[in-house]
């Protein structure tokens, strides 16, 4: 994969630059890039390579390129190198791996992309500056769909070696892995607390980062009896509340009916234009009157 060392800086039309390995950008960070370029200009040109048809392929600098486009610019300063498509893709992946603030999913995609292009774990580690153990661990967690553990590894909460042990173990094995990590002084204090919480969420919500995992559990007879008893208790409570409400309504209806038999009280109501009674209350008082 040859590449010349001679560098050329040119003004390249943005529309002539193709992005081979597009990334989804964090909007907050992207706005910071746009603001920085708008205020002080472009500090570092993007890197491109020229194709045979006169168009260009972006090697690195997608954020800067998109910021220029956002600011309404038609051209961007670019370092032009000679590189084939394979080199362009690898350089783009390496740049993404080297970004200071990248999400676990980004790192996962970058390592996966290089692996799919035929690079070994050793080669990926050498090109990205990551340890071979880290590359192998991330690859394994990816294949097993362990997105929740990956995020914790990337955040520095759980070492990749411990995360791989957790991914391969059952409940008893997970506890043993945590115990060993504690004894080796790998997980202590706050990190151990976070690791336990991650494991609890993984067991409750699944390996991914979405909603709760739907599982079917075998229900015992004792559990059914307990659930039935709890439901019965709830219904009894509702009945008691309904009875209490009914008694209060009957008392109010009786009190209002008695007051309406007081001519002086009725005159006061008429003076204040309050001599009407809600239809339902009037009907209830009439029924009570008939049953006296």
Automatic annotation (TrEMBL):
Protein name: Chromosome partitioning protein ParB
Source species of the chain: Roseibium algicola
Pfam family, one: ParB_N
Domain ParB-like N-terminal: 10-97
Stored InterPro entries: Chromosome_partition/occlusion, ParB/Sulfiredoxin_sf, ParB_N, Plasmid_RepB
């Amino acid at each position: 994969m040859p590449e010349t060392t001679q560098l050329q800086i040119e003004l390249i039309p943005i529309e002539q630059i193709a992005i081979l390995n597009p990334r989804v950008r964090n909007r907050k960070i992207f706005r910071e890039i746009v603001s920085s370029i708008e205020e002080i200009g472009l500090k570092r040109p993007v890197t491109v390579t020229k194709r045979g048809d006169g168009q260009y392929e972006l090697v690195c600098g997608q954020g800067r390129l998109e910021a220029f486009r956002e600011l309404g610019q038609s051209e961007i300063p670019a370092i032009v190198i000679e590189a084939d498509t394979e080199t362009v893709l690898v350089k783009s992946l390496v740049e993404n791996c080297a970004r200071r603030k990248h999400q676990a999913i980004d790192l996962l995609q970058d390592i996966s992309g290089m692996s799919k292009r035929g690079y070994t774990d050793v080669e990926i580690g050498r090109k990205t500056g990551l340890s071979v153990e880290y590359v192998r661990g991330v690859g394994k967690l990816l294949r097993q769909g362990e997105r929740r553990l990956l995020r914790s590894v990337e955040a520095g909460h759980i070492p990749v070696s411990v995360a791989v042990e957790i991914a391969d173990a059952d409940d008893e094995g997970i506890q043993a892995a945590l115990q060993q990590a504690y004894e080796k002084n790998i997980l202590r204090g706050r990190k151990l607390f976070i690791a336990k919480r991650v494991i609890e969420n993984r067991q409750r919500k699944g390996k991914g980062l979405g909603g709760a995992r739907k599982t079917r559990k075998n229900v015992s007879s004792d559990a059914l009896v307990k659930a039935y008893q709890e439901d019965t208790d709830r219904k009894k409570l509702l009945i008691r509340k309904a009875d209490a409400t009914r008694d209060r309504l009957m008392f109010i209806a009786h009190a209002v009916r008695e007051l309406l038999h007081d001519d002086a009280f009725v005159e006061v109501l008429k003076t204040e234009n309050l001599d009407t009674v809600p239809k339902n209350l009037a009907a209830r008082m009439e029924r009570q009157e008939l049953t006296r």
